[in-house]
Amino acid sequence: MTYVFDIPNVTLTLAVMIGLAVGIDYALFILFRYRQVMKTETDYVKGIGLAVGTAGSAVIFAGVTVVVAVCGLSLVGIDFLAVMGFASAISVIFAVFSALTLLPALISIFHKRIKVNKLQSNFKKDIDTPWSKFITGNALAAVLLGLIILVAAAIPVSHMRLGIPDDGVKPADSTQKKAYDIISDKFGEGFNGQIPMLINVKDKKMIHKDYNRFTICV
User: Fold this and answer.
1) Of 30, 101, 103, 108, which is closest to residue 62 (Cα–Cα)?
2) How far apart are CA 71 and CA 97, in angstroms?
3) Residue 93, Cα to own-chain centre: how many angstroms?
4) What digits encode the pLDDT tens for the residues 142-165?
5) Neighbouring C-beta atoms of residue 214, cutoff 10 Å
6) How far apart are the first and last CA of the chain?
7) How far apart are CA 38 and CA 15, in angstroms?
8) What is the C-alpha separation between 125 and 123, in angstroms, rounded?
9) Alpha-carbon span 200 to 146, nearest angstrom
10) Is 91 within 8 Å of 19 (Cβ atoms)?
């Protein structure tokens, strides 16, 4: 990708973090399903097939969802954010393929070391917990409580400032913030975020056309 795009250093870190996170999640998902299957199955090869055949579709769906979500960063129109999204999507794709190919191979090699608790006939029938009893017994109150918590958590959204962070978001007592305010006061708003623009000066009509196009985009 470096031959086509300029990749910031933070992009590789983000891609590795996301790929590692989803890779572990997908691997545990399939491994948990394998252990569930092996409670009633004796052939580990068949157990691997059943685990991948059932949990694998969920892994693919989850991976596609994450890929679409991170590729949505390209809709912002900022190049480095788009590159971050594409790099993260590639790492997620590799994580999905690893969970569907490498993980089953590792399970087949180390299947004897994977402990599986066989089903017991004398299991406890009443598995209800106090929390589950409260939720099912007071469904309306639980819904209202959840909505209140969500609304309270969403209150800061009204004060959220969208955009690329600069020194203007630093603490008021920091030197960066003080310098930012001095430059804005002395030279005017926008001086801290100058945008270079190329204009064809040979054609006077093109000067006004390029300028108007630039102001519309901004």
Assistant:
1) 30
2) 18
3) 13
4) 999 999 999 999 998 888 776 667
5) 13
6) 29
7) 34
8) 6
9) 58
10) yes
How far is Cα 194 from Cα 208, in angstroms, rounded to an integer?
A: 19
Half-sphere exposure of 176 (CA within 13 A, CB side): 7
CA distances from 159 to 27, 178, 204 (A): 39, 22, 44
pLDDT at 121: 47
Locate all alpha helices (DSSP H) within 118-217, ordered by sequence.
Answer: 130-137, 139-154, 175-187, 204-217
> How many other CB atoms sit within 10 Å of the CB of residue 200?
11
What backbone torsions phi and psi does residue 200 show, to the nearest 5 degrees?
Answer: -75, 105
For 46-78, write each residue's pLDDT tens digit: 999 999 999 999 999 999 999 999 999 888 777
Burial class from Cβ neighbours inside 10 Å (0-12, 13-18, 19+) for residue 31 reads middle
CA distance linking residue 90 with residue 71, whole number of Å: 10
Find where tokens 């390029």 sit. Answer: 210
- Is residue 61 within 8 A of residue 22, CB to CB? The reply is no
pTM of the model: 0.62
Name the amino acid, one letter, at 135. I
Instruction: For residue 191, give every residue at least 6 positions away whose Cβ sits within 8 Å of its Cβ, in sequence order, or none.
Output: 183, 184
